[in-house]
Predict the 3D structure of the following.
Amino acid sequence: MGLRPFEYVEPSSVREAAQFMAEHPEAARIYAGGTSLLLLMKQGIVRPDYLVNIKKIPGLRYIENGGGTIRIGGLTTHHDLEVSPLIRRFLPAITELEPQVANIRVRSTGTIGGNLGFAEPLTDLPPLLIALDARVKVAGPDSERVFPLEELFSGYYETTIEPHELITEVQVDERKPHSGFKYLRFSVGSDKPAVGCAIGVRLDPATGACVEARCVLGCVAPTPLRVREAEDVLRGNPYRAEIAAEAGRIASEACSPLADLRGSAEYKRAMAGVLVGRAVQEAFRRAEGQEPEGGRR
Amino acid sequence: MIRTIRMTVNGAPHEIEAEPWETLLEILRRRLELTGTKLGCDQQVCGACTVLMNGLPVSSCSVLGVDAAESEILTIEGLAAGGELHPIQKAFIEHGAFQCAYCTAGLILAVKALLDQMPAADEEQTRHFLAGNLCRCGCHLEILRAVRSLSGQPPQPEEA
C-alpha cells in the first residue's frame, strides 16, 4: 500500500494535456481510468514524476451516432458501454462482451481510451474492435489524426502513438446488414482472459457465401493478432464445419502465446483454435439471422 | 503538495486536505477515520475496499482521492439510519452471510449497488454483479440467499 509521491496535474483541455505531455514526455503519465496504471505505480514498475489526470477534461465521455458511425469518447467507461442503448442497438457484440471485462468496479472506472492506450495484451475489447474495423482519433498539442485501431498496437504494452498524443475517440461504423460478430474468451472466473477471439463475417444474402471476414485473436501475441489467412479460408464460402475448423487450425498456428498461470503455451494455442472454430459458427449464424446478437438485460 | 478535496461522504459534505497520491481508501480510513472499509488485495480483485462512488461500486484502493473530488461516496458507515440497520445488513445477519466479515462491508455495498440498479435481480444478474467480491470464508451461498430474500427471487433448486 502507498503510492510514491508525484506532482498532480489536472488539465482542463485536450490541448493543455497534450502540451504538458509534450514538455514532459518521459516524466509524465496520463491517468484516465487508473485501473491499470495505479497498479503498476504501486508495484513501482512505473514511477511518474507527474500524473496528468485527463478525467476532468469536459466533453470526452460520450457515445453518439453520427451518420452511421458510432463515436465513443475516450473517457467512456466499460460500464457506459455495457448499458448504452445505442451500443446495444448498433454494436450488440460490444454489449455482449462488456459484462465479461474484469469486475463491476473495474468497469465503473476503466475507460476505453485507457484500455486501448495501455496496450495490455490480456484484454478483451481490442480484438473485437479491430474485427469491427474501429478507428481511433488521437490528438496532439496542435493536430488530430484518425487511423485504424489495428495500427495502434506495436508490442506488449506499447503503442505507435507519441507520448504527447491522447486517444480522444473511437469510431465504429454501424453493423452492416447480413453481418455477424462473435467474441469468445477463455478465462477462469472474472480473471483476465487467457485467450480471446473475435470473428466477423458479412454474407451475400442470395448465396449465403461470406464476402468479408475478420479473425482477430487476443492474449496470444504481443498485440491483438489479425489472422488474414484464416479470413481467406472463410471468404467465398457459406458456413461449413470444415472451414470453421480450418480457420481454427490456421489461427492456432499463427499465434505465439506465452505460458503463465492461465495455461501453457500449447494449451492456449489449442484453445485459440477451438475458440475460432466456435466463433466462426456463431458469427455465421448471426449473419444468417438465425440468432440475435447481444447479451441479456 | 497538499490539496483540498471536496466530497460528500455518507451524506455529509467534507473538505479534506490530502496529498494527491493518497487513495480514496487511505483518505476514508486515515483522514476521516471511517475504518469500516478494508484494504484487501490492493489491486482491484478482491472487493474488500468496495465503496459506492456516485452510486457505482469502485475499488477505493485504486481510486485517487483527488479523483473522487466533487463526488458522492457511500461507505458501510453510511447505511444504518436512526439506530436501525439497513435491510441488507439485517439480511446478511439473518442468513449468516459472513464469518470473519473482512469482505462484508464491501459485499454489502456491492449488493446495495446491485439492488439499486435491479431491485428484482435474478440469480444470474446477482452472481455476475458480485463475481468480483471474494469471500475467503466461503459464505457465497449464504450471501446469495441474503440477496434473494431482498430481491424476491425464489430459492435455487439445489437448495430448496
About this structure: DSSP finds five helices and five strands in chain B. The longest helix of chain B spans residues 104-117. Helices of chain B lie at 24-31, 87-94, 104-117, 123-130, 140-151. Residues 85 and 92 of chain B are 11 Å apart (CA to CA).
